[in-house]
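Researcher: I'd like a structural prediction for the single chain below. Treat it as a standalone chain; there are no partners to consider.
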Amino acid sequence: MRSPRTTAAVLAATAAMLLGGGTGVAAARPAAPSAAAPSAVTSAASAAAPAAVGVCSSTALAGGSVQGALAPAEVQRQLSSLTAQHRAQYGIPDKGPLGTGSSAGAGAGSTAVRPLVSIHPAQGTAFKSQSGADGSCATQSVTTQLTVKNSATTIYTPTMYPPGGSCVELVTVYTTSVRAVSAWDWCRSVSFAASVPINSSFLSTYTNGSSAYTGRVVRTSAASNTWTAALYNYAAGRWDTLFTQSGTNQSGRTDGWDIEELYSATGSSGRAYSCDDMAGLTFESSSISVRNNGTWSVATSANSDTHYDQPNSAFYCPTRSYQMLSTYDHWRAVG
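Model: Treating it as a single chain, here is the predicted structure.
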């Protein structure tokens, strides 16, 4: 769901390209811990990092589906406005939001649909296309503190798509009405196909008290190109399945990513609406790993780089900061 391009070209490219929204240990949290607990956040993230490495390669199987996952009809209701099919008739086959407004080209009294998106930046780890690639895993930040206020903004942070022609992308989604961990189907519907809300139940089951969940997407059958997205259930010590799909990848990609990605627009000040929504929050992905022929390895220059990165200025957020803390298995964005 990514397409390398300059920020200036985003709006024009939106109508012509199929993009993805389509990310270790991470904790989405206030950038500065409270005075009452100055080290609580740091300790939680640090404690989870070494555990995540072992969890990614764990053979513990799921006893069933992700707890709290929505029914397919509810996934459609909540997320269909972000899918390619829902908006293909408007010539905008990506996952960004859509709005309405008057248009000089429209007839008198008519309303033309037009994109609200003016930026679509990304930063983080990009997985190289490699023979035998068959999975990725990371511990990714979640938060109930992020409130998206403007309909032009959709935040996919972090979002992870493994190399190897995967059928599934694992996406942390924030919109004006949704906070969820969701699975995007790249092989059949090319839309969001599964989702679980980020709430107190999710946090107690899947974050191990660290405000970050561990997710992986792996190929379970090479013959049918079947891929499964799963979340690690810390409460039960097992993997729970969120979504499985097989078939031919429709993106045409064999590389992948674990990145911060968002769609938004800029106000009259030139500042993105997403900047205000994300202010004061830290988003991280760490213990980022890739699998090749069934063997897990930490993300390094041997299998990863940053070929989807855009400069900080592409986020139109002067207060935002970003660091690749450990090449390429741990990145952090603040604001």
